[in-house]
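Re: beginner question about structure tokens

> Can someone show what the tokenized structure looks like for a real chain? I only ever see the sequence side.

Sure, here's an example I had lying around. Input first:
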Amino acid sequence: MNYYDRIRELTKNISPSLVNFELPRDSSRTPTQASSNFITNKEQGDWAENLITRAINETSKNFIAVKYGKSDALVAGEDGFDNFYQDFQTELDTIGKRPDLLIFRKTDFDKNLGLDISQVPHHNITDYVKKAIAGIEVRSSAFLIDRYELEMQKRTERFRDIALNVKEQILTGFRDILENPIRHKYIQVLEGITAETLSITDFKVPGWSSSDRLVELNNLFRKLKVAIKEIQKRDFLSITPKVEDIKVVYKWIETFNVPHFYFQVFFDKVYGISFEQILTIITDSDKEGNIFCVEKDAKNQNKTTIKINSRSGVTVAYKIDEPEHESVRKEMGRGRLLFYVTFKGGTAYLDVNNLQLILGINESEF
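And the corresponding structure tokens:
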């Protein structure tokens, strides 16, 4: 069974309520106006892509990374953007979504096409693309993952202690009130709360206010509820394929039969995961809430996004030297000004063994 056949079999096990491969891709309206935040995110993404490209090309003797993903310097609101965007939508329906980078053996690398084929029409490079050993979708995140995880651990421990202390405070100081048959169910709720069950505990804050002690008790329940909600927040940084992208990535794999990967670039490390593993994870509903979750992403037009714990992947780069950054002024139509941040430089230190493992490259080859 070849790569595409394995991917096709996996798609059959994905719930249609998550990704329905039988339905056509949803059409997308052309954005009309860019924001400073959007351009900064685009600049960060371009930097991350360049970071991975340089890391591979400066490290490997036998492989080379080539820019492939459809991109342009134009942003919404500028002349020519509408045509670029509509061409991009047409290409999505024709060959699927190009990954940002392609990895070729140097023996297959076409020097005439060079290190950037992102502007080359797809029908001119079909056979060439099929020679790639991997396509890499590069995602960026404005976090230091080690710092984030340390802070999340501290947060969870802090609110766990608050919740358990408030629970005991209620049972010790207000049991007489809760013994009332009308309120007795709250004793059962409280006695079921342990360090292990806090992550799934839920209850409605009573709303009592007819006496000073009931008000005090109600406030304690509210404090307990707040602590539990903090504990139940997602505590991992993620690799984030959008649900709508699953279809167009699958379309690209169907077209070219080249293994596809996601690399998530943080400002201190890079994690990688194969598209095959992503599909394997989301076919297992028992992993939802632990290994992955599905959320509406407010930062991306509320598009449904699958968020997979980055630690489910492998460490592709164990260290990053942060880039330099500077502010840029951009004048749009009608004198509208945008100010955004650009990123330059930085170095990713590859974990070569892990990179070879995830891409399926033998040690002697790289």
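Each token stands for a local structural state, so reading them left to right follows the chain. The two ends are 25 Å apart (CA to CA).
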